[in-house]
Amino acid sequence: AAAVPEVGGGGGGGDDDSSVGTPRGSEVSSRDSSRPSSFKGLRKNGNNNNNGNHPSSGEEDDASSSSPKTVTGNGERSQGDSPDTPKAALSSVESYDLKQRIQEDYREAIVQFNISPKQGIATLVKKGHVENTPESVARFLRTNAHRLNKTQIGEYLGKEKEYNGGFCVKVLHEYVDQLDFTGMEFDVAIRHFLAGFRLPGEAQKIDRMMEKFAERYCVLNKAIFPSADVAFVLAFSVIMLQTDLHNPAIKEEKRMTKDGFRKNNRGIADGKDLDADFLDAIFDRIKSSPITLEEDKKQREALADKTSGTSGATAVFNSLGLGANPSRRKAEAFHREREDMVRASVSLLRGGAQGQQQPNGQGGAQGTQRPAFAPVNASVAEPAVSAADRANAAALAAPKMFQVAWGPALSAFSHALERLFVGPNPTSLALQGLHVSVCVASVLGLDVARESLINALASFTTLHNRTTKQMLPRHAACIETLLALPLHEECADNLGSSWLPILQITSRVAHLRLLAQGLQTDDAFFAGLVDETGSVDHKQLVAARQRDLETAQALAALTKLTDSKIDTIYGRSTRLSAAGIESFVTQLCAVSAAELSTGDALDAGSSYTQNTALQPAVSKFFASHNNNNKALSPTSAEDSSISNIPPLGSPPRPRVYSLQRLVDVADANVASRPRLAWDRIWRVLAIHFARAGAHANADVAKYAVDSLRQLSLKFLCKDELGAFSFQRSFLRPFEKVFFAAQKSDRPNRAAVREYVVECVDALVLSRGGSIRSGWRSIFAVYTAAANDVEATVIELAWKSLDRIVAQYVDTVAREFVDLVNCVVAFAAATRASKDIALGALRRLDECSKALADGKVSANITSEEETFSTQQTTSSTQQQQQQTLGAQATVTTVTTVTTPDGADARLELWWPLLLGLAQRVADPRIEVRNGALATLRRTLERDCGSFSSETWRLVFRGVLFPSLESAWTDDAVHPSSTRPTDAAPDPASAPRDDSSWLTSTAPALLATCVSLFASRGGGKDSAALLGELLGALGDCVCQDVEALSRLAVDALQSTLDAVGKLEPPAPRETWDVAVHGLASLVRRALPAELREYAHEKSLNDDDERIEDDDDDAAKKKKRTALVLAARRLAERLPRSPTIARLVASLRLLPLCDAVIVAAADQDAVDERNLDTMLLALQESRNFAQTFDADGVLRYALWETKLMGDTPPDLVAQGVDAGAAALGALKSLRDTPGASGTKKFKALAEPRLLELCRDLLHEYSLNESSQQGGHADGAANGMDNAAVERSLGPPSSLAKASTPLALDALDVVNCLDSETFARNCSWLVPVLSELIVCQSVDVRTAVAAVFATRLPTALAAVAPPITTAVEGQPADNDDDAARRAKALEHQDDHPDTPERPRSATEPSDTAPRPTPRHPGAVVKPYRLFESQ
After folding, report:
1. pTM of this prediction?
2. Are 1135 and 975 in contact (CB under 8 A)?
3. Is the distance from CB of 1393 to CB of 1416 less than 8 angstroms?
4. CB-side exposure of 377: number of CA atoms within 13 Å?
5. How many CB atoms neighbour CB 1387 within 10 A?
6. How confident is the model over 744-794, as pLDDT tens digits?
7. Residue 1158 · residue 1070 · CB < 8 Å
8. What average pLDDT does the chain have?
9. What are the start-end ranges of the H helices in 1037-1066?
């Protein structure tokens, strides 16, 4: 279908000055006034005769083109050329004809639309100009608003969902969604919204329109309001402000002020106030520029002298009961009628004086006419009095006149009713007078007069108080008169608080009729509780007498009253205005509260309205009832008040008559009342039902819950738009009742909780497809049920929740977080069976699948999701804190920084992952293992699209906190005797297979490693690896040996995974691996032993025992050393220390492996190599220092640190040297791409330096053991005990032998040049080893001397000749050359100073600073003895 140029004018343009139905294109171009107006819309092209002189005012014509076309009878275009017509001319004519045809179709359809919108739309659809879709129709209405009747547009958009299959409602939604309110002020957005149509007069239609507007505005302006409910309420308040400020019928002194506007909107933002400056700005803009249609503005200007100035919005909100109150509306109508009467009377009086003349000073001249009853001799005319002034005077006089008259009239009526007269006339007249007086007082708004009259009438019924008077016919007549008052609409609308005595009498009459007919009353169904203040027998007697009296009264009343009269009072509640129904429901709640508290409706005045505890919750309802400017607040504003309302009492005869009537009234009004009016009604009902559900009588409480269920079934039939929370507010009393039943210590509370769960389940079964925000209340109840003390309550709730997840997981997208938290609560329910917990884990797995497959996100737009997460965060936190107590873990979704793309819904993933992680710490082994399996499956299967930053969040916030359970595992675990043990000693502690560390920790660590390995070696792998190494390091350094062993194994798997990453890990990742492992090697050393060694090194000069010290000084120093060592040994915990030593020993092989793996990927440089070598040197020095401290070792031997044998760290020192030696050897031999050894220059100098240190230390160890001081063996144990010191470990030399052999092998494999350069230290060290005890070492040294040394010496210096026969001896010049060569070799840069070993005897030289292996302190000189 072709688009029409003229029809596509401005969008939503309600401010156009053109008349309705006149197209914008009808104006004639200034360049060619004779050209038809239709040509203004032609597309500009090269073949057009108008040459673009007539610019288009609307959309371009898709049908026009450079090729000629013809139009068929049905409006379709076909290709074709006329042989007699030029191509350009034919194209232009054809385009003009097409436009004329389309214009005619549109004009015809617009005329039809202005008469019948449905017929107009059907015409456009039939002719193909508009598609039969809501989007196309909405676009037509919006772009042609200047031509259509805006009243008809409003009526069409406001049609109910039953009309035309709900098509108009869909059009409304599309219409609003096409409007852009982004960045607009709130009142400006309302102007823009209402500019395209006129609000209809029906309340329900306006309700639907403003709901959709509020939703759209909040979607486009997310940061302004916390929810769409606030915007909805404020929208009504703004339009009320518009009415109040710009209605001429309202006097200036009575118009709304800024303070009044703020007061009206107090507490609408979830119980908080909106910003005062924000509200003041709205007030100023509305006051300076009213919200109006251009058509209305012109009409008001034309009819300014004939109308009262009431705008369309005023009429609309009067119908809603949200504008001026009924008294004001009736007063305005009265004023207008009075004005007309006064005008007619004045005309009549003036017309009756025609023909009469008044003499004047001119003698006989024609005088002016005068009124018929004016003084004849009046020489001056009366001043003119306007009709409005006369009407105002009459309106002010009527209340004053009645105030004077009602008191005496009441006395007269009362006198007539108190005495007995012959005949019915005096009584009938008195009752008629009371009836009329009450109606007049109600209409005039005289509250004191109205209440006095109604209370007087009620007192004559003998039912208003507990009297023993016999009921007479006049009393029955008073009852009929009182119950007839609500039948008059004007009177009923203005009864206000006077509804209380009427409803009290109604309740009493209903009770009497049951007794008179011999039917059972409510107390027969709700018996079982009595007042503890008196005896049961006495109360039974009082109740029996009261029943006899009530039966007698009922017999007399039966002849005058019928059930239909009583039912009419409640049935006519649908005719009350918004203010009237609110007053009616409030007073009916008061009567119901009295019935439930004392069993008597007559106690309503003291039990409800006068209860000081209830005043915070209900005072605003009574106050606002008599206030012209009514405050508008969402239902969440009274939540705090509900929780403070005390539960109802425990009467012996509770009644539920008024409670059932409340259900009937609410049921009748829920469908007919607009959203805002119903919201204010429910504010009253919610408080009362919450209290009734907390009744002491469990049967009464269940009855109240069932009443709630009935209302909820009706209310949930209404649709709820996104970002609203109507259903949540409606279902919230279920939460209050359940929480109250959980906290109560009264009997039979479990039955109430069970019934609440059953009712909620019934709602899900019946209305599950219609529930939106109500899911939050349902999940709140089930979350509380998951932590109930009764297993039956838990089972009932789980069955319902299990069904919800199975059937509605894809429809609860807005409340997905609450659903997940609820399921997690059942997984954590320790009082429930394991089957429920495992079933909850399975449902969490299904939720994960649904989220990953898009089933959840497909049903929630990005705009709605923002509101869902905002509302969920605070409510979920508060809900969990209330229901879970100490077990609640608040999920702060909004604090997670979510990247773009696939991670944008991390708010939905986070509570699921966190909930599973929390269950990994469950005390039940099956549950925690199942949770871990589900967590791993979820992360591996469903979270593959997460970014690197998100994975860091997952590791940091989900996986790593789960490892803390291992740190707090209270189970006793076995410990090794010595660090070199392959496994802990089972005899040290029994193995507990059910402990978290034994059953779950290995799988969790494996999960962390597997997830890291599966993420790949991208550029961001370094950051994730660093955090993983940090978490594993925390586990390695724990005090439990079993955890340390598991963590070291996981660390090894992690480093292996780094070498296998695809794509290969970058250099940054390897740097993190090397530096992280080196840091962990240092960190794993026992802190107490390190501090002790450090302090001892600082005090070494003072405490060292010298040979020249006298005996007293030696004894004093030794005693100090022994005491310090003993103090350390006594406070040093055995198991944690052994765990640290085991970890330190098991980490050393990983250092060799990580360097080798990094070298394979060309990721080793000088910096990370030296870092690792320094860490190994520190570990080796720590072990050597410990083994050299005989005093400390003896003290630890006494405390049995390593069992019955003396403690030593020989294995750690040897393994540290072996790790460094192996890493350097592998690095040196790593082949390059071209077959060269690319790391030889980096590794070989450090390797030779390390070999020199290892060989020299081995020589010192050999010499010390040959001296007979190993572990005190030579001196005997007695001597060791006396000295309280141990010598070097006996196994030191033997354990070091393989390491020394490896070093000798390195030396032996050196090339000739390198060997020759290092002879300066090789020869002395090898000479020391010639005399060692190890045969293998001596053999290796001999091989070096025999095969390598002669060649090296020959390369260093010329051959040395001796004086033999036939050859002269060396002369002095040869000797000088050799000396010079030796000096040159001594200065070779490859021979740095060697560090002193921890086993070397102390001397006066200062201790060297830490350095990498191979650094030397002092060079050896070749043949130094010479």
Report:
1. 0.74
2. yes
3. yes
4. 0
5. 9
6. 888 888 999 999 999 999 999 999 988 988 999 999 999 999 999 999 999
7. yes
8. 75
9. 1041-1059
Closest CA to 638 of 570, 684, 600: 684
H or E segment to which residue 79 belongs: strand 77-79
Q: What is the pLDDT of residues 97-109, one digit of tens each?
A: 888 888 888 888 8
Q: Tell me: pLDDT of 597 over 60.
A: yes
Q: Is 518 left (phi over 0), alpha (psi -120 to 50) or beta?
A: left
d(CA 61, CA 1391): 92
What is the C-alpha end-to-end distance of the chain, expressed in Å? 114
**Three-class DSSP labels, 911-924:** HHHHHHHHHCCCCC
Give per-residue pLDDT as tens, 421-460.
655 578 888 999 999 999 999 988 899 999 999 999 988 8
Q: Please report where in the chains the tokens 């993983």 appear, as a residue.
A: 1028
> How far is residue 1083's CA from residue 1073's CA, in Å, rounded to a whole number?
15
Query: What is residue 422's DSSP assignment?
Result: S
- Identify the DSSP state of 1210: H
> Residue 1356 CB: number of other CB atoms within 10 A?
17
Token couple for 827: 């997984």
- What are the b/e assignments for 598-626, b being 16+ CB within 10 Å? bbbbbbbeebbbebeebeebbebbbebbe
Cβ within 8 Å of residue 582, ≥6 positions away: 621, 624, 625, 680, 681, 684
CA–CA distance, 434 with 298 (Å, rounded to integer): 49
The DSSP letter of residue 601 is: G
Could you tell me which of 415, 410, 411, 416 has the C-alpha nearest to residue 429? 416
Angle in degrees, CA 284, 289, 291, rounded to 5: 110
- State which H helix or E strand residue 1385 sits in: helix 1372-1386
Q: What's the Cα-to-Cα distance from 1324 to each of 1334, 1349, 1395, rounded to whole Å?
A: 18, 12, 16
d(CA 801, CA 807): 10
3-class SS of residue 1348: coil
- Residues 6+ away with beta carbon under 8 Å from 1322: 1252, 1307, 1315, 1344
**H or E stretch covering 77:** strand 77-79
Q: Give residue 1247's identity as a one-letter amino acid code.
A: L
Give the DSSP letter of residue 469: P
Q: How many other CB atoms are found less than 10 A from the CB of residue 204? A: 16
Sign of the four-CA dihedral 1413, 1416, 1422, 1424: negative
| Cβ contact 568:627 at 8 Å | no
Residue that is written with structure tokens 């219409």 in the block: 175
- Report whether 1023 contacts 1032 (CB < 8 A): no
- Dihedral over Cα of 1293, 1298, 1302, 1308: its sign: positive
Q: Strand 69-71 relative to strand 77-79: parallel, antiparallel, unpaired? A: antiparallel
Residue 1263: count other Cβ atoms within 10 Å of its Cβ.
Answer: 15
Residue 1388 predicted with pLDDT over 70: no
